[in-house]
UniProtKB/TrEMBL annotation:
It comes from Candidatus Muproteobacteria bacterium RBG_16_65_34. The lineage of its organism: Bacteria, Pseudomonadati, Pseudomonadota, Candidatus Muproteobacteria. One of its GO terms (biological process) is polyprenol biosynthetic process. This is Isoprenyl transferase. Mg(2+) binds at D20, E207. Keywords: Magnesium, Metal-binding, Transferase.
Length: 250
């Protein structure tokens, strides 16, 4: 069976971002790396506002990958501190603005203090109708897929799932972003052109946008450029350009 062609419009419903380049931004100014992360947090505030205004419904931000634990101990510690403080300071404001807050990743690995605040923030904002802000922390795309596969395996062992009947659609309900539409637009700042184990499964048909701009410099104008690039593209999902045109006119 062919999957239906997802609807696409000029404004992405879901934007996923790898916020990269904080360290280089700081280094270029002779500042400690954490200064770049702090400035990066300001850009997150700005982007959340801009997404709300543009009509984006879901924003997923890569804040800390499962590989980032390999960084110097001090940077990891300061990042966790920054994250904890941000949760304490920002959640009330997000709630006031109707933002729904969610986390994906192995939350327990972030420590009890952070895990507890995440639970509270998710519970507080659960029924909000504005932008859904999803923070990926201690997250890895492979971890996510492996976890979903383990769920399928459990079902198979219990006799509830027939391994021969497994399709991509059978795995999807067990992924972290199962109830969220797939990202339409992926943005990576900082100049690297790679996915770095961010959402892997759901990026299959996402439009990719890479910019040299370092994350602490990624302002509203930069975001608008990314949106404009997205709006200029034709998403074909395997069809021909003519088929997509015809479907659009119908
Ligand atoms: C991204 O910026 C933020 C995190 C990974 C937490 P970096 O810290 O990776 O910045 P660069 O790539 O070293 O410039
Ligand atoms: C990806 O950035 C992770 C986050 C932005 C949180 P990295 O800076 O860790 O990616 P690599 O290691 O350069 O691929
Ligand atoms: Mg980096």
């Amino acid at each position: 069976m062919t999957a239906p062609v997802p609807e696409s419009s000029a404004v992405p419903r879901h934007v996923a971002v790898i916020m990269d380049g904080n360290g280089r931004w700081a280094k270029a100014r002779g500042l400690p790396r954490i200064a770049g992360h702090r400035k990066g947090l300001e850009r997150v505030r700005e982007l959340v506002r801009a997404c709300g205004e543009a009509g984006v419904q879901y924003l997923t931000l890569f804040a800390f990958s499962s590989e980032n634990w390999r960084r110097p101990e001090q940077e990891v510690r300061l990042l966790m501190e920054l994250f904890l403080n941000a949760l304490d300071r920002e959640v009330a404001k997000l709630h006031e603005n109707g933002v729904r807050f969610r986390m994906i990743g192995d939350v327990r690995g972030l420590g009890e203090a952070i895990a507890e605040r995440i639970r509270r923030a998710e519970a507080l904002t659960r029924d909000n109708r504005g932008l859904t802000l999803i923070i990926a922390a201690n997250y890895g795309g492979r971890w996510d897929i492996a976890r979903a596969a383990a769920e399928l395996a459990r079902g198979a062992v219990a006799g509830a799932i027939d391994p021969d009947a497994i399709t991509p659609e059978s795995l999807e309900p067990y992924l972290s972003l199962s109830e969220v539409p797939e990202p339409d637009l992926f943005i990576r700042s900082g100049g690297e052109q790679r996915i770095s184990n961010f959402v892997l499964w759901q990026l299959a048909y996402t439009e990719l946008y890479f910019t040299l701009v370092l994350w602490p410099d990624f302002d509203r104008a930069q975001f608008e450029q990314a949106l404009a690039s997205y709006a200029s593209r034709q998403r074909r999902f395997g069809l021909t350009g003519e088929q997509v045109e015809a479907a659009r006119r119908a």
